[in-house]
Amino acid sequence: TKFGSQVIVRENQAAIFFRDGKGLDVLGPGRHTLSTANIPIVTKILSLPWNFTSPFRVEVVFVNMKLFPDLKWGTAQPVAYRDADLGLVRLRAFGNYAIQIREPLVFVNALAGTMGSFLTVDIKDYLRDIIVSRLNDYLGEKLRTIFDLPSQYDEMGQEVHDRLSHDFQRYGINLADFFITSITPPEEVEKAIDERAQMAALGDLDKFLKMKAARALEGGGGGGGGAASDMVGLGAGAGMGAGIGAMLPGMIFEAFKGQPGQATGGGGGGGAAAIACPACHTEVAPDTRFCSHCGESLVAGDRCEKCEGHLAPDAKFCGRCGEPVGVTERACPNCGVKVPAGARFCMECGDRVE
Asked: Among 161, 189, 217, where does a domain finish?
């Protein structure tokens, strides 16, 4: 470059002159003529050996000074925090930010170095790590419960911005904007929070369990083809729903105690052996109240002494065979001797009682 050469710097740019590895000066937008007026340090370089006429070698680095908006940041993995309502909770955070180079010479010396080109993609991972580190530290100090977070994004964003500004300024970068768009728990924690909200809305644990059982019925009663098939499906759905309804209280009770939940409240160790349905002989879980295949009730109750059918509470006659319920004995029609209920032949004369 000859003394008197011109350098054109566009808007939103800065030109840095380097000679022998040292930054001489920074020029802003405009047309610049290489002289001692705009680069005073060249006086010492050229005055004695070249009398301001001979060429000399310099490097010119152009730096983009525009605002770089909508840069994304986020946590790669959920981070665990203490929560006043939920205990220990893992959270993910996401947002965006905008940066602008304020001190080009500091930026080039600290980050760009001798690279031929240096883009935002080359630095965004490093800046993201700084952001996540400061945010984790902030949430560890300030977080009370995640239920307060949505109303505090603006205030939190400003406070984290103030902390980050000092870090960015060390590299000649101005953090123009910083926003927190979401701080959320993983999907499984969100489901637990939704169920807690449903329970709070109902205001009653019993109502909550009934709602869960009803949803289980909706999912378990599917069947295809005809009224008979629909009835079988309904029976199977009833069995599944009742079984789930029976297990839920024990599961939730154990969860509230903070102990490993068990589906049943009975003692014993591991999984109990399956039992057979007395109607269709399908194997079902031991705590099931209805057969999931045919809908037969598996709960022990009164049965007709004649046909072994289930009796409704306070029934006076069997719904299957019409036999009177509660009659303990009757008279033989031949000899008149009383015989026990359910007997088919008289013990005195051998005549048929039925």
From this structure: 189
